[in-house]
Structures are given as C-alpha cells and as structure tokens.
C-alpha cells in the first residue's frame, strides 16, 4: 500500500513522521509533495526511501490513500488539479475542519473521510477525530482507524460537532500551553525561580495530569477534589481560578466557532462558484 501526502507543512509533516516512527508506514510506502518542494525534500533526506513528487497528480496516481494536508483556502485548487486522477478505489482523507465531506463527495469519486489530527499525534498520543463519508463501508472505517491507532486514539464524531471536538482535541494543546505559559511566567516573576526549572516542573505535572485523566481513572472534578486537601493550600488557588476564569472558555469557543463559520462559508463559495 502506498500513502500519498499533498502538503508537508506543519500537520502533513507531523503525520508523516508519526506514521513512520510508529511503524504504520515505512518511508518507501510514502510519496509526498508540497508547493515549496524543499519541505518535502527535507523529509526525504531524514527518511531515506520516502519519495518526493513534483506534482500533486503524481501523488494521486501512485497512491492508494491520499492525505490532503493543505489549508481550506487551497482545497478547491488542489482538487481541480487532481480530480481526473482520483478513482473510486482511492481513499481520500481530508484533515481540515471547514471543508464539508458533502462538497468533497460531489467532486471526487473516492471513498472520503475527514480526520482531524492533533499535534499530540507527533508523540503518538492524543485523539484523531474521524468523520466518515457515505462511501466508507464499515470495513473501510475499521481499516482507516486501525492505521490511525498507530499514532493516536481514533474517535468518531459527528460532523456537526467537528468544531468543538477539534477545539478540545487539536486547538486544546495550544490553549493548555498558553495556560501553562502564564503559570510559568507568574512563577518566575513572583518568586525568582528559573524559567528552566519552572518549565520542567510544569511539564512533568502536565504529563502526569494527562495520565491521571486518561489511564488513571480520574475525572477533572475528582482530580481537583483529591488534590484540594480540606483547609489546605490548593483550594486557595482554585478559588482564584474559579472566579477569574468564569466565562473565559465560553468566549474562546464563541471565537473559534465564529472563525469556523467564516471559513466554512469561504470553502462553500469556492466549491459552488466554478464547477
Ligand atoms: N497545525 C495543527 O495543529 C492542525 C492543523 N490542521 C489542519 O491542517 C491543515 C494544514 O495546516 P498546517 O499544516 O498547520 O498548515 P501549513 O501552512 O503549515 O501547511 C500547509 C502546506 O500546504 C502547502 N500547499 C499549499 N498549497 C499547496 C498546493 N497547491 N499543493 C501542494 N502543497 C500546497 C503549503 O506549502 C504548506 O506547506 C489546515 O487545514 C489545518 O486546519 C488540523 C488539525 C491540527
Ligand atoms: O489553528 C487551526 O486552524 C488548526 C485547526 C486545529 C488546530 N489548528
């Protein structure tokens, strides 16, 4: 089986590296291309055997499964370029949330799924959201999710919940890192602890907390309760957080959803304009 990657920017590269490191694909099974070809060539230098394509058509012609890893604004252009080479036996995997599966199915005969990866997949962790199109048979869904299991926990979501699921799973690492950054900055400013030491402590804490919330059997609420010794110190800090963060995540979600609606509209226009 050959896997093709159109776009080797941030997420395309992360997926390729994660698939290789996890053993899901060996470099010889991968063909990749990018508008700035140097980015794909760098991957080939790191992973000998990985084939660099000069054109997107070449990627499609040589692949069984194609990962489309460009931004939504580039989708229509890429699809117009490759559509004659896409067959009903191809698997086409889109990794972007605002391009709806129905639009892709209207213009391409392939079996189509949308998967939303996360930077956490780089360390073979976190979720990959799976939204399968109508042509994906039960065995196709299982096959694709088996591949994704090498790098993540595949989780099926409804397309209606793509944005909020992606906020939690894919934007989440950046949101959490922003929270941790603020904690570290305050620690340094208030106490004089070194940035390095504060960062190490916060990072180890984050890893451990992630384990407690996944394999450790804790819910977020149970975890707060367990750490907050009655009459103790944690409760003093949580009191401030509860007060100051009230409503913050509602604002975050409203902002991501507003941008998402804008992107969906632009993507829809690109698909309906010049058919
Ligand atoms: N970065 C992240 O954590 C996540 C990103 N995504 C989605 O992945 C998609 C790509 O995002 P990034 O990789 O972060 O963006 P990026 O800008 O780093 O990568 C996109 C790549 O596509 C290439 N490209 C553009 N037009 C092309 C064309 N016609 N042919 C071939 N290559 C072309 C660009 O040169 C660039 O390297 C976005 O839709 C984003 O929403 C999804 C989940 C997480
Ligand atoms: O910022 C973005 O648009 C992408 C979507 C999910 C994570 N990064």
TrEMBL record:
Pathway: Amino-acid biosynthesis; L-proline biosynthesis; L-proline from L-glutamate 5-semialdehyde: step 1/1. Keywords: Amino-acid biosynthesis, Cytoplasm, NADP, Oxidoreductase, Proline biosynthesis. NADP(+) binds at residues 6-11. It catalyses: L-proline + NAD(+) = (S)-1-pyrroline-5-carboxylate + NADH + 2 H(+); L-proline + NADP(+) = (S)-1-pyrroline-5-carboxylate + NADPH + 2 H(+). Belongs to the pyrroline-5-carboxylate reductase family. Catalyzes the reduction of 1-pyrroline-5-carboxylate (PCA) to L-proline. This is Pyrroline-5-carboxylate reductase. It comes from Paenibacillus whitsoniae. The lineage of its organism: Bacteria, Bacillati, Bacillota, Bacilli, Bacillales. The gene is proC.
